[in-house]
Specification:
By secondary structure, the chain is α+β, with helices and mostly antiparallel strands. The protein has one domain: YaeB-like fold, CATH 3.30.2310. Helices cover 29% and strands 39% of the residues. The protein contains 3 helices and 5 strands, in the order βααββββα. Strands 1-5-4-3-2 form a 5-stranded mixed β-sheet. The radius of gyration is 12 Å and the shape is globular.
């Protein structure tokens, strides 16, 4: 089994934790990392980025936008989305 690649969060992604918390959505770093390492769905994003998706709660999924650079995963942003839209 291979070791999971290192994950780095850009400034906006780090700010996103507080932004979402202000809106009543409490997401922690471990959930974002788990979503990238073990997504239920992955799709291409803009500019060569990827979007990993995993469960958040009964009504929503967590979507994580990331890039692969220099052997690491760079989290650009993440957001909750309605299951009805993305599943």
């Amino acid at each position: 089994m291979t070791e999971p690649r290192r994950i780095r969060f850009v400034g906006h992604a780090l700010d996103k934790f507080a932004i979402l918390r202000e809106h009543g959505v409490d997401i922690d770093r471990a959930l974002v990392e788990a979503t990238v390492h073990q997504p239920t769905k992955t799709e291409p994003g803009y500019r060569g980025r990827f979007i990993a998706q995993g469960p958040l709660d009964e009504e929503r999924v967590l979507r994580v936008v990331y890039e692969e650079a220099g052997g690491e995963i760079v989290i650009v942003t993440f957001y909750p989305g309605k299951r009805a839209r993305y599943e």
